[in-house]
Amino acid sequence: MALEHAILVSLLEKPGSGYELARRFERSIGYFWTATHQQIYRVLRRMEADGLLDVHEVAQRGRPDKKEYSVAPPGRAALAAWLHEPVQPESIRHELAVKIRGAAFGDPSALIAEVERHREAHDDRLRRYLAGEARDFGAPDVPRSLDVGQELQHVVLRGGIAFERMTIAWLDDVLDTLHRLRVPPSVGRP
């Protein structure tokens, strides 16, 4: 996926400045597609030059005017065309998994702290996802009326929640295995 498509989706959900867009990437879209502020501003300028975005100057008191971006008709057409293109299933490059396999040739217990660190990071992300779900979509057992955009945002978020839960369960399994294989310091490995 190109950053352009993520920007188009975000701006169709809500027009905004480059700063506001970067904040959205940090809070929601960034869970699934990351970009630096520099990348976002560079792509916004290119998309504006290509006619995909409309830009309006917004006056601010005591500060320089800001640019507010929205999607122009050619941007909508580009997104619509992209939605019809097939995408390849993603392959996972997982450095930690390679380290875990490599631990067979060293001390498996040496990875315990690293796996615990990864587990904590995924647990933190899961908590953020769940807090965002509660904030944006309410309690899961309370009926709610969502528009199409909200339903699709929620299903992506639920996918992120399921992924984090699966990853945490796997990391717990890895930790159990590493603890079981722990080699006492006085015992050498072949």
Automatic annotation (TrEMBL):
Domain Transcription regulator PadR N-terminal: 7-80
InterPro entries associated with the record: Tscrpt_reg_PadR_C, Tscrpt_reg_PadR_N, WH-like_DNA-bd_sf, WH_DNA-bd_sf
Domain Transcription regulator PadR C-terminal: 92-178
TM region(s), chain numbering: none
Domain of life: Bacteria
Pfam families: PadR, Vir_act_alpha_C
Signal peptide: none
Gene3D superfamilies: 6.10.140.190, Winged helix-like DNA-binding domain superfamily/Winged helix DNA-binding domain
Protein name as it appears in the record: PadR family transcriptional regulator
UniProt source species: Streptomyces ambofaciens
Source species taxonomy: Bacteria, Bacillati, Actinomycetota, Actinomycetes, Kitasatosporales
